[in-house]
Fold these 3 entries.
Entry 1:
Amino acid sequence: MTTQHQVNQQQYQDKSQAYLNSAVHAQGIEFQKMRKLIQAHQFKRVLDLGCGGGHVTYQIAPCVDEVVAYDLTPSMVELVAQQSRERGFHNVIGQQGAAESLSFADQSFDCVITRYSAHHWQNVMQAMSEIYRVLAKNGKLVIVDILGNANPVMDTFFQTIETIRDPSHVRNYSLQEWMHFAEYAGFKVETVEKQSLDLEFQSWTQRMQTPKHAVETIRYLQQKASDQTQQYYQIQVDGSFSSEVLWMVLAK
């Protein structure tokens, strides 16, 4: 029996380089916000949860004493550790594991940052409880992830194309769902903002090595979507589109 964690690992075990080189993952206005938050609170130890290609780690390593780059996929962790050494960041520790089971002592981190990772987690409620546990008192959790939609038509369309592109996709949660997760885990909601992310179709599918038949299915669904859906996601002739991204800061 294949678990969701195994599906995730199988999907990403050979894609670390693609994520390292991904312009979408390497850029974003959220990096400046992260650095500003860390410096304002003088955070020393940060967990990059679901580090992927390591872009959060590289951005914040100069601002803190230690970053733990943590990911379910071993090759991602190895890549980030290697890249950090090459970039002169000797305060980066790589560790493999799942978001739902953080092998750290209580109150180990001043700040936890997760960027474009939560939509792969098998159990967000459990992961949020674990994050709360490992955060120090007055610590902050920063969540950056693509938003789902409260409208069922929009939501079904988006979750479907995400899953066809990447079978390890679990769910893009709506803002209402994120508010529920935060409050259930015991967090105080400090900041909620929305950003826009433009996704170029060819690189979006190539990064995941999406098979040709799956790419054709996504294009079919895009073309058959209602005018409202096409306009909301700004679907272009070549399949490129835009999605909403959540920037959320929670406090313990």
Note: The chain has a mean pLDDT of 90.
Entry 2:
Amino acid sequence: MGKQLEQGDIDALFAAAGANAAAQAASEGDAAPPEQYNFSRAGQISNEQMRAISTVNDLFARNLMHTLGAWLRTPLRIKLVAGEQLPFKEFLERLSIHTFVCSLRLEPLGAVGLLELELAISSSVIDVLLGGVGKAWPVRELTDIEEAILTSVMQLVVQELNLAWQAVGLEFVFEKRETEAAVARMMTPGERTLCVSFEARMPEAQGVINLCLPAVVLNAILRRLIAEGDRPRRRSKEAHMRMRDLLGQVKVGTLLQFPQMRLRASDIAALVPGMVLRLPLPKTSAAELRVGNLQLASAYPVRTGEHRGAQFEDEAMSSHYIGQSLSRPADNLAMSVN
């Protein structure tokens, strides 16, 4: 038969077990306690991530300033003014009564963001695109034509967003303009968002461009953004082609310069307006074609249509002409003094 424990024996066993547990806890007192997860900080963006975001958005602001300014053909200044985390309900409270808000689909995250353009600056943009000088008019609801114009402007803004964020694989897809009621249903009121504000200035008006993105879904992208920031930058194929196109539109000073020659000082001193000074050079002498004060090639002065030009001495380039203000071919090259 098994031994039956008395109440005193049972109390002694529980006391011994309690003493062992206390001793084990004391021996582990120096160990770090397990970290507790705070669900209220879900979606919180770190300071390092905010710095990476500011770098990308500053690049976006500069590119948009040049692209949109060239499209509008008017002075335009765009700069990053703020980037902060706030609940979605606070973003809604900042929206103006009359504003232009469109929805953006974030791929491949499958999330939705918002892009706002204040009508204070929109009116000036519309006036320029309709042939005006960019005057601002009182804030009011947009007509169908004005809304179509602003839609094309916002699509241009989204293109620049894609160029700035493409290094981390984030794509913005423009969807449509949203009503105030539809905007309020995009996210839950307490959802944490990243709100980035840009100031846009034109000669007659100024306003704000706001970008609102859900912070929770950006965490993976932001980690990749920080990792990319530590690597050497590589230009994308689109950026490379865009750079080539922009450089192709640059104008540089071009000159067809005669080779060195010797002239008598008395001939130069005798020059008067209307006199032609004959140069000691045969017409077969090639001149130096200089671009930006650097010698590009040897060329001959020619005429192409109503323009004067330079024909390259190299046979492979002989069919190309560069317009210059040069004298027509003659038996001898001459310089006219006016």
Note: The two ends are 137 Å apart (CA to CA).
Entry 3:
Amino acid sequence: MVNIDWWTLGFQLVNLGILIWLLGRFFWRPLSAIIAGRQNDVARRLDALAEKEKQVEAERVALSAARTGIAGERAEVLRKADVEAQAGRVATLSRAQQDAAALQEATRQTLAREETETRTAWGDQAASLAVDIARQILSATGISSEAVRDTLFARLEQAVTALPLRERTQLQAGFILMAAVAPEDADRRKYETRLAGILGTQPVITWTTDPTLIEGFAVITPSLSVASSWKADLDHIRDNLTHARS
């Protein structure tokens, strides 16, 4: 049989109660407060970490979208660059073809122009040569008969008569009468009288000679020239030959 010392047990219970009260008041409450504070701090950190994770995830999603966008933009830039390069190649080829066609046409026109100029030059030379030969033949024959001169002077009279009134009036003041060969005094007076009859007055006539006329006459003023000579006829023939080819 166990003997219980109730006083000792009671005293110990009292001590235990005091110890529990002391522990509860001075240990468990601060410890609980500390633990609660640590728990709250851990919870805040966990919340902050979760928020950070959300931000990181959002940034990752945004970065992924940005990369996708960049990839799309890069593909679009490459596509546009390829299209522009292709268009540039087509434009360059087109310009090259146009330049080649223009050069070919310019060359053709140049060759045609040079051929025409060459033909014209040769034709002019041939006409001039033919006229020169005729002039030399006429000069060498020494033909100077009265009938030839009268015929040429009659043509000069017709040319003067056909002049407008204003120009015939100018001749009344005087002019140079050129002859291929200096006529005799009697012939001079005859020619002057015939011209005076056309002009209605006796003008002042200055005689001169020019062998290049071959045969014939020319009325000359500072603003007028009327000729009836073999030289004028040959020049007219040469002009007709030249114009007939053009």
Note: The chain is about 75% helix and 10% strand.
